[in-house]
Amino acid sequence: MRTTAVIIGAGQAGLAASWWLSRRGVDHIVLERGEVANTWRRERWDSLTLLTPNWQSRLPGFGYEGDRPDAFRTRDETIAFIDAYASHVAAPLRTNCAVTAVRATSDGYEVQSSEGTWRCRAVVIATGAFNVSQVPAVSQAVAPEIFQLSTAQYRSPALLPDSGVLVVGAAASGAQLADEIQRTGRAVTLAVGEHVRAPRTYRGRDIQWWMDVTGLNDERYDQVENLVRARNLPSFQIAGYPDRRDIDLNALRELGVRIVGRVAGVRDGKAQISGSLRNVCELADLKMNRLLNVFDEWAIASGIGNEIEPTHRFAPTRVDASPPLSLDFAKSGIKTILWATGFRPDYSWLDVPVLDPKGNIIHDGGVVTDSPGLYLLGLPFLRRRKSSLIDGVGDDARDLTAHLVSHVGVRSAHAAVAIEAR
Ligand SMILES: Cc1cc2nc3c(=O)[nH]c(=O)nc-3n(C[C@H](O)[C@H](O)[C@H](O)COP(=O)(O)OP(=O)(O)OC[C@H]3O[C@@H](n4cnc5c(N)ncnc54)[C@H](O)[C@@H]3O)c2cc1C
């Protein structure tokens, strides 16, 4: 089979790319190993709500039109939203079609899948940034009687043993699940390394409103000082709950969650805990205050300082005088460890030599320069701070499909008009 471009993956990124390629008159197909929005269906927990408010889900040609712009979608509502987008885009879609290999050919690429082989000029990899859980090697030293799982495997607290739980990692997922599990009566210990503290609401406005209006979400990949660091930062420690409550470490402690430092090792039924808790908390407080300063400065410069609630600061993170350096699983009643330690993408099917030693694709803002015609979408800070968000992938898809069009040399009248209209 032949087509001009193959898009791999039918999450928001693949669908946004399809929307732009259709507008630009580029013949293409979207190959999806499962269903549309597969990751939201199969790899997220039951109670998940988006961190981003409804208004902040602006996909190309599609946005929020309901009467609850400030509410947060549930997982099922998110699936319905992405499904509706697929219908809107009318993407040429093959579901239940897993891509098993991509190889370079003399005039483009060969894409092998469970449903046949396509030859094409260009490939857009939109397979997601969060495919494989990054569970640290120390997990292998944990005794078999302790139940271990990652956030991608977690569905609900009801499926956990009725005993203490160690949640490792305090980005958005770890903090949310510590909150959820503690509320079931299980004693939760949260192991905290470097994290990004942020309030849900500041001066009466949502954190994402601030990130949007100040232009921080639009900051480009070629403007940040340390791109590698920016791409690897943990997510904001926030949740999208109807009561808009904070889930920072102070709030979790108030709920009864025990806060300890990073898990550095496991030996003889005990976790060795790093002594860095105070430092990482002070750093997180400092960085949050710097971010709030940026918001305040923007409010003054834009003249709305008097129209919103007054400026204020949050209480510093409380840390015990002598946080523990060891955690005995048996004595603490811990029978479950939930690893909320992040993800990495899976390119095991890619037979093009473009990976760095860590298994990431080498690219310049999504353009895989060592393999012309190969593109990436949906990774953190791919082209902008918002790149991995529902709200951010559309702008990246517009930029990269423009590059793709010039690469394959599509010259239809429709394509030319669409490019000029950008
Ligand atoms: C826990 C969590 C919460 C998040 N919350 C938010 C939020 O509140 N707001 C927000 O804007 N963003 C959020 N994100 C970030 C982002 O929006 C999601 O990760 C989103 O799923 C990314 O969309 P995507 O299209 O890039 O990738 P995915 O949704 O992962 O889509 C990739 C698709 O590719 C398919 N695929 C993979 N490999 C193959 C293959 N070999 N062959 C064929 N198909 C393949 C997969 O089945 C999948 O359908 C969250 C992320 C996580 C992990």
Percent in strands: 15-25%
- Helix/strand order, N-terminal first: EHEHHEEEEEEEEHEEEHHHEEEHEEEEHH
Number of E-state strands: 20
Shape descriptor: globular
Largest sheet: 5 strands, parallel
- List cofactors, ions and other ligands: flavin-adenine dinucleotide
Roughly how much helix do the residues carry, as a percent range?
A: 25-40%
Radius of gyration using CA atoms only: 23 Å
- Placed side by side, the strands forming the largest sheet appear as 3-2-1-7-20
Query: Mean of residue pLDDT?
Result: 95
Distance between the termini: 31 Å
Structural class by SSE content:
alpha/beta
User: Runs with pLDDT <50, length 5+?
Assistant: 412-422
How many DSSP H or I helices? 10
General description of the model:
With 422 residues, this protein is of the alpha/beta class. The longest helix is centred in the last third of the chain and has 25 residues, at 277-301. The protein is 27% helix and 18% strand. It has helices at 12-23, 38-42, 75-89, 172-182, 207-213, 227-232, 249-255, 277-301, 393-408, 413-420, and strands at residues 5-8, 28-31, 93-94, 99-105, 108-113, 116-120, 122-125, 132-133, 147-150, 164-168, 188-191, 201-202, 205-206, 258-260, 263-267, 270-273, 326-328, 334-339, 343-344, 374-376. The protein contains ten helices and 20 strands. The relative contact order is 0.18. Helix 4 (172-182) links the parallel strand 10 and strand 11 (188-191). The chain has a five-stranded parallel β-sheet with strand order 3-2-1-7-20, with helices on one face. Strands 9-18-10-11-14 form a five-stranded parallel β-sheet, covered by helices on one side. Strands 4-5-6 form a three-stranded antiparallel β-sheet, with no helix packed on it. Bound molecules: flavin-adenine dinucleotide. The site of flavin-adenine dinucleotide has 31 residues, from helix 1 and helix 2.
